Amino acid sequence: MDVSLVESLRERYPQVFGELTRAEAGNGWYSLLDRLGAELSSGPGPYSSIRLFKEKFGELRFGKVSVRPEHWQLLDRVTEQSRSVCEICGAKGAMQPRAVRVRCPGHAQVEHADGRVSSGGG
Ligand SMILES: [Zn+2]
Highest taxon of the source (predicted)? Predict the structure, then answer.
């Protein structure tokens, strides 16, 4: 994920992503994380924090979390949603059967989500 997007998550949701140390996923999943940050930041504290997210087995997964019990379902839902969102562009995608990655038709041939996407895209 582009540094600018990671910084955006940190700045917008400091209680949730302020201590983020690893962000190993494609830009296409930014909107999922943005929505999650908003949900976890709403209401009174203590807030749930996430220090690691990454693509694993094609899904968006979380680690090093300090999460209120009622928030686990939100994280699980994001992981589930990531299975149908292209990791590169955020369009509707599908888990590719043999490659274990989520891609839209236009990005089906792109192997790695990181490092091959220019910043500033939608
Ligand atoms: Zn795509």
Answer: Bacteria
